[in-house]
């Protein structure tokens, strides 16, 4: 039965390829060069989708913004300045709907069943049509998502250069990458990790790949560069020298810092924490672990963190907790806006649609003064069962509206002031002379013992948690 299904799938892909070849696309205006690699339907991959506009909360149009009004000013800054939205190339244009238990379910109009450079160019044209219709001006990519891996490093680099040249042309002056990154986890060479691999050859190959990815990100005007160590960890400590691997990873990061400065790339370097999956334990488990690593190796001023909400919950924290941990350490650089399913124990990368969660996220962002040069990347994918091109737009519109609504709710909370006042009153006993001495590190135990004997048993006030939750909910 499995063999029959495979043969039928191959037959289907061959038919699709024949249709594409037998019906070549018409060259779009201004894109006569490499027309065969461009797009179908006179250059439009999304012919039935209009440019997405703001229509307000009363709109019933699924292809319109209800809460995200890019030019509207909130808390002294335009919404687009607070939110800085970005489209993730890998989920949006390489997502197939496959999961550990099932094959692909999506057959997009830009796909022809190959992973050639010509196919990569088609995806890139679809990417920029999507971005323009959505009305955002940033995107994120992995090197091996936008261009196929070659048989040699030289061939891989050449493939990447060819696709990136097209991306540069299509970006124009308005669009740029929020960040780029190197994919150091899918290829079998990275089975033991990249910067933490036990094989010297793999370490050097990974360094060369990151070098090229930084160069490409710089060339495209990228604002940040991300390191996600999906294989930087271990499956068992019985065969792992953890100390040596951590030292190697630190050396790798230091070399990245040096090269970034050498070529004049001013983008922020970001580390993306995740506890496990695919490895049993990854060295950047959560924000606190990553921050400790940076401090230990003298890298605290060179990196910030890219916090992903789904990763936060996998590490046993809320997204709000991870954002606050990063923010208070001066390390909040970017947010991968997604969520997981509490009934599924793995990284499902769903679009964030919970208004309460979005409001908590925006509380941290506003307290941080914004995210620039970082922003919100939709590291999220359609559900396996969602297979229409329209679904790509609806998912992003919903994610953008959710965070925009969260921002509006934060503005309400700040204007009302009740929540801030509740917190102030809770700690008001420290707004005294002794409290100031404690917070300045000038109160020793002898002084504190004297006060304890003088005051006797302390009175403990209510935390007013239910009132805090009521105030918060009233803003939603």
UniProtKB/TrEMBL annotation:
Molecular function GO labels? xylose isomerase activity
Q: Example GO biological process term?
A: carbohydrate metabolic process
- Provide this UniProt record's keywords sorted from A to Z: Signal
Q: Which InterPro entries match?
A: Xylose_isom_bac (IPR013452), Xylose_isomerase (IPR001998)
Indicate the secretion signal residues: 1-22
The answer to whether the entry has keyword Signal is yes
Transmembrane intervals? none
> In its keyword annotation, does this UniProt entry include Signal?
yes
Alphabetical list of NCBIfam families matching this protein? PRK05474.1 (NF003998), xylose_isom_A (TIGR02630)
Q: PANTHER family, alphabetically? A: PTHR48408, XYLOSE ISOMERASE
Protein's UniProt name: Xylose isomerase
């Amino acid at each position: 039965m499995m063999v029959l299904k495979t043969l039928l799938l191959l037959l289907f892909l061959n038919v699709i390829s024949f249709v594409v070849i037998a019906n070549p696309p018409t060259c779009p205006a201004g894109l006569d060069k490499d027309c065969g690699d461009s797009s179908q339907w006179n250059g439009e991959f999304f012919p039935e989708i209009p440019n997405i506009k703001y229509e307000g909360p009363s709109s019933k149009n699924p292809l319109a913004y209800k809460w995200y009004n890019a030019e509207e000013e909130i808390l002294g800054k335009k919404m687009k300045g607070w939110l800085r939205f970005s489209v993730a190339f890998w989920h949006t244009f390489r997502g197939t709907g496959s999961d550990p238990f099932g094959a692909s379910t999506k057959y997009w109009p830009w796909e022809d069943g190959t992973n050639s450079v010509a196919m990569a160019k088609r995806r890139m044209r679809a990417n920029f049509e999507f971005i323009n219709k959505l009305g955002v001006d940033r995107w994120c990519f992995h090197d091996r998502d936008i261009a196929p891996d070659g048989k040699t490093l030289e061939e891989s680099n050449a493939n990447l250069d060819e696709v990136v040249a097209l991306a540069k042309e299509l970006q124009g002056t308005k669009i740029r990458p929020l960040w780029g990154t190197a994919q150091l986890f899918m290829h079998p060479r990275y089975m033991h990790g990249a910067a933490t691999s036990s094989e010297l050859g793999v370490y050097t190959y990974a360094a060369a790949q990151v070098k090229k990815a930084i160069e490409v990100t710089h060339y495209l005007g990228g604002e940040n560069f991300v390191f996600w160590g999906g294989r930087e960890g271990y499956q068992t400590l019985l065969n792992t020298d953890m100390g040596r691997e951590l030292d190697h990873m630190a050396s790798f990061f230091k070399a990245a810092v040096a090269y970034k400065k050498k070529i004049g790339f001013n983008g922020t370097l970001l580390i993306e924490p995740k506890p496990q999956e695919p490895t049993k334990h990854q060295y950047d488990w959560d924000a606190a672990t990553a921050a400790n690593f940076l401090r230990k190796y003298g890298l605290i001023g060179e990196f910030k963190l890219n916090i992903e909400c789904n990763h936060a919950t996998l590490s046993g924290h809320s997204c709000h907790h991870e954002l606050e941990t990063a923010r208070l350490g001066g390390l909040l650089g970017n947010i991968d806006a997604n969520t997981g399913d509490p009934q599924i124990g793995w990284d499902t990368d769903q679009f964030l649609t919970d208004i309460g969660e979005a409001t908590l996220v925006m509380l941290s962002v506003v307290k941080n003064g914004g995210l620039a040069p970082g922003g919100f990347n939709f590291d999220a994918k359609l559900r396996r069962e969602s297979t229409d091109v329209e679904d790509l737009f609806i998912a992003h519109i919903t994610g953008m509206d959710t965070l925009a609504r969260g921002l509006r709710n934060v503005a309400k909370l700040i204007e009302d002031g009740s929540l801030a006042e509740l917190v102030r009153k809770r700690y008001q006993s420290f707004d005294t002379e002794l409290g100031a001495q404690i917070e300045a590190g000038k109160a020793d135990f002898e002084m504190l013992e004297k006060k304890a004997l003088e005051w006797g048993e302390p009175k403990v006030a209510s935390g007013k948690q239910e009132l805090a939750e009521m105030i918060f909910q009233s803003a939603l």
